[in-house]
Amino acid sequence: MKKLTSDIIAFKGSHYDFGYHQGQLLKDSPLLPNRERQRQALKKELLVDETTAQEILQAFAPRIREEIIGLADALQWSMKDAIRDFGGYYLEYVRSGCSILTSPSFMVRNYDSAPQGYEGRFVLYAPSDGGLATIGPTMQITGRTDGMNEKGLTMGYNFINRRNSADGFICNMVGRLLLENCATIEEAIDLLKELPHRRSFSYVLSDATGTNVVAEVSPREVIVRQASVSTNHFTHLTQENRYQTDDSVRREHVLLSRKDNLSGVYEAFRLLNDSDGDIFSTKYSTASGTLHTSLYLPETLQAGIALGPDRDPFIVDFGRWIDGQPFHAKRINGWIDTKFPFPHMIEH
User: Fold this and answer.
1) Which of 29, 193, 219, 220 sits between 20 and 30 A of 313, alpha carbons compared?
2) Contact between 160 and 202 (Cβ < 8 Å)
3) Is residue 98 within 8 Å of 281, Cβ to Cβ?
4) In whole angstroms, what is the distance from residue 148 CA to residue 205 CA?
């Protein structure tokens, strides 16, 4: 078993100041040096065109562009390097799993991926220069793997396919844009249809009205369906699916067969997080092992997360923090049964 930690970062202020604050924290972290080693091992350029990326960020995410400028200034990086690492545009993304279960009152989600890509950052951010307050784990520093905003909109995504890609934003930046800019599911769907997408993903959306939808999104099309379960295959845009969908279909069937007998969010959390169940995955060598299980309660604005299996969630009263309640927790701890390293925790 390997110990896994996630730093909690709570910040209120402008996007530039938030970026600068994160850059100061990252200076002493092994995360960025390890990411650089990963890039060198891949021996490929991950960012295709800085000018295009700058234009796209200015058009769709000007405030997040300010956050990236703050990161660059704190780290004393060029904007080219900062956009490559934090821009969420043109970047490669490894295949992953993920299972999501929703109801009128909650979203529970397993984030399944490779330990080598996990950042160990859980962020509460309330911007002072526009945009909605958000909470959730990060990817690529500026992006979110899942999360909730101050209006109760919740978001999680499922990887579908990396083939037939196009120029566009990757999943974590799409998630951040949805949470920071959209108060309702309708607004989120409109934004999904407007954004350029790099890969095919399902985006699962819930809100405080008790509505749940799954948006099947590819670089070519967006289809929205009513659903309370999502794994790693499309049911409408089936031409975008991977060749192998057996495990995704299996997990979907398990969730569908069990969801109506769950007494509430805690039983749903246990269904996804228990190691002796049928959903939690230990397939870390294929980039599809469960790293965290998260939950979101849109009506009460509470969020929770557990690192690794068989743990109770660490609960955050996000609404009280927005209203000014002090928040003192600094770190979440867990254990993962893997031999692979976490880049934010070790130097090599």
Assistant:
1) 29
2) yes
3) no
4) 10
Asked if residues 148 and 230 have their Cβ atoms less than 8 Å apart, the reply is no
Rounded CA-CA distance 13/15 in Å is 7
Tokens of 55: 């234009």
Q: Could you give the dihedral angle defined by the CA atoms of residues 256, 257, 259 and 263, in that order, rounded to the nearest 10 degrees?
A: 180
Closest CA to 304 of 334, 341, 277: 334
In this structure, is the dihedral angle defined by the CA atoms of residues 339, 340, 345 and 347, taken in order, positive or negative? positive
Q: List the beta strands (DSSP E) in 211-344.
A: 212-217, 222-226, 229-230, 282-283, 288-297, 302-307, 314-317, 331-336
DSSP 42-89: HTS-----HHHHHHHHHHH-HHHHHHHHHHHHHHT--HHHHHHHHS-B
Tokens matching residue 27: 């200076």
Supply 93's token pair.
């993304």
CA angle 220, 208, 123 (to 5 degrees): 75
Q: How far apart are CA 198 and CA 146, in angstroms?
A: 18
- Which of helix, strand or coil describes residue 100? strand
| CA–CA gap between residue 320 and residue 292 (Å, rounded) | 24
C-alpha–C-alpha distance, residues 12 and 23, integer Å: 15
CA distance 187 to 191: 6
Q: How far apart are CA 161 and CA 96, in angstroms?
A: 9
Of 262, 308, 252, 305, which Cα lies nearest the Cα of 284? 308
Q: Please count the other Cβ atoms lying within 10 Å of the Cβ belonging to residue 277.
A: 14
